[in-house]
Design a protein that fits this description.
Distance between the termini: 48 Å
CATH superfamily of one domain: Nucleoside Triphosphate Pyrophosphohydrolase
CATH architecture of one domain: Alpha-Beta Complex
Order of helices and strands: HEEEEHEEEEHEEEHH
Strand content: 25-35%
Radius of gyration: 17 Å
Length: 214
């Protein structure tokens, strides 16, 4: 099957991209996410999920990317992202899909405590038209797609008030069909958009602000 020119260009730019690789991977909890693109060129879309509401989960009900913690049987972060995508959506990206590259490591905290956790996004492309996702209901409440063109249009950027350390700060977001996309997910998608455009994104500065660093 011939590779779409837009996919080929993104794959080339990801190959030339230098994602941030944080040290200490063997000493910290790791999680991996899957950015799954479908379609071609600017008509591509991205698969996103809304997480199920669960007591004690700081991301309960939030929009995010398929993903989760690495398991002992995962041979790599990339294989963990593939496994989590399959478990949460039923989509096997190894069947007819194409791995395009990875993005930068980001730090957050683990679900159950305030210990740091490293998250690495991996980018794939697969033609999923006609595929009916199989939702893992204990973790995923909803699956939807976001047009890449919506993400690339800066006119769609919004902001909202977020409580942080006893005060409220304005944080950037997108709101698509009533769903707010922000935080770590937005940082990952910002980096992807920057790579797609062939631009350097200053997302790490925003990431430090998000995490409370100055």
């Amino acid at each position: 099957m011939a590779i779409d020119a837009g996919i080929h260009l993104l794959e080339k730019r990801l190959a030339g991209h230098r994602p941030v690789s944080l040290p200490g991977k063997s000493r910290i909890t790791r999680a991996c996410t899957c950015i799954l693109l479908n379609g071609s060129g600017d008509d591509m879309d991205l698969l996103l999920i809304r997480r199920a509401r669960r007591k004690g989960d700081p991301w309960s009900g939030h929009v995010g990317l398929p993903g989760g913690k690495m398991a002992s049987g995962d041979g790599s972060g990339r294989s963990a992202a593939v496994r989590e995508l399959m478990e949460e959506t039923g989509i096997n990206v190894l069947s007819g899909g194409r791995y395009l590259g990875r993005l930068s490591d980001l730090l957050t905290r683990s679900h159950n405590n305030r210990r740091p956790m490293m998250v690495t996004p991996y980018v794939f492309h697969a033609q999923t038209n006609g595929t009916t996702p199989e939702i893992q209901e204990d973790e995923v409440a909803d699956i939807f797609t976001l047009p890449l063109s919506f993400l690339l249009d800066n006119g769609n950027r919004r902001s909202f008030s977020y409580p942080l350390r006893g005060r409220h700060v304005r944080l950037p977001c997108y709101v698509f069909e009533g769903r707010r996309i922000w935080g770590l997910t937005l940082m990952m998608l910002n980096e992807l958009a920057g790579v797609y455009r062939g631009r350097h994104q200053g997302y790490l500065t925003w990431a430090r602000r998000y995490l409370g660093f100055h």
